[in-house]
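Why should sequence recovery work at all? Because a backbone constrains its sequence more than one might expect. Tight turns favour small or flexible residues, buried strands favour hydrophobic ones, and helices have their own preferences. The token representation captures these environments compactly. In the example below, the structure is given first.
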């Protein structure tokens, strides 16, 4: 019964989504209240999920491996905080194992101030022909589904090798206006150079 109710709510919410986020929002909240009573946290979550997302988003992917020193990839995630609000930053690993899970858990425990957004996606490695890590890839992704799907991205430029984010953006900026924009936001010194 409970599963049927949840599937019905999901189906109706998806069907109503064509009419706009407010209808989905109101419908989902009303269904929840009818069957489970009022719950502020659930209602806020449903409202947040129903907010429209931008159609296109700039994403910087960081392909790496846990065979690299932990300090190197953790530092890259730390430096990526400068891109917040201007581009999404995702680490991409080729696969998952107990060792990988353990090391990621340890890194998250040690560096609570960092957000580790990581995709486990061997198909991205294959599709983009990433044979060496680390590598940075700049993309514009269609987010109309509400989440990131790598097949819906237009990949612009990649920089291979053990380089920093700012160096990767500098190399990409030679051919990409979006990379130039990110470089200015990422590195205040770069903005000052251009102002002269």
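From this structural description, the recovered sequence reads:
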């Amino acid at each position: 019964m409970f599963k049927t109710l949840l599937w019905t709510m999901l189906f109706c919410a998806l069907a109503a989504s064509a009419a706009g986020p407010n209808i989905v929002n109101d419908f989902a909240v009303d269904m929840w209240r009818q069957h489970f009573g009022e719950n502020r946290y659930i209602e806020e979550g449903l409202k947040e999920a129903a907010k429209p997302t931008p159609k296109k988003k700039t994403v910087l992917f960081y392909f790496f491996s846990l065979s690299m020193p932990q300090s190197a990839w953790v530092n890259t995630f730390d430096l990526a905080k400068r891109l917040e609000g201007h581009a999404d930053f995702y680490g991409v690993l080729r696969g998952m194992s107990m060792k990988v899970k353990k090391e990621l858990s340890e890194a998250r425990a040690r560096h609570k101030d960092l957000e580790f957004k990581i995709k486990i996606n061997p198909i991205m490695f294959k599709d983009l022909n990433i044979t060496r890590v680390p590598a940075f890839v700049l993309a514009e992704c269609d987010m109309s589904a509400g989440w990131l799907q790598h097949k819906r991205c237009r990949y612009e430029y990649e920089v291979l090798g053990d380089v920093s984010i700012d160096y990767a953006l500098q190399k990409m900026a030679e051919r990409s206006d979006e990379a130039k924009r990110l470089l200015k936001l990422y590195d205040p010194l770069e903005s000052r150079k251009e102002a002269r």
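A few observations help interpret the result. Residues 2-50 form one domain.
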